[in-house]
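Exercise 7. Given the encoded structure of a 60-residue chain, write a plausible sequence.
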């Protein structure tokens, strides 16, 4: 697991809904709005795979 410049561990398998840059990245990657990403995180938890599955199910 990678570490930040402050020595904290990064977990790329999770989406931090409170971090605008992470929400913006996920929204652009999936082609959805930032609000949709935040709702998916609230519904499915912060696991990136679960968030992506939640957004895919909402689009289908």
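Solution.
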């Amino acid at each position: 697991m990678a570490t930040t410049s402050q020595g904290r561990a990064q977990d790329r398998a999770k989406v931090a809904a409170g971090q605008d840059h992470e929400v913006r990245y996920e929204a652009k990657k999936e082609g959805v709005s930032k609000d949709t990403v935040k709702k998916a995180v609230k519904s499915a938890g912060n696991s990136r795979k679960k968030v992506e599955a939640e957004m895919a199910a909402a689009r289908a």
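Remark. The chain has a mean pLDDT of 89. Students should compare their own answers with the one above.
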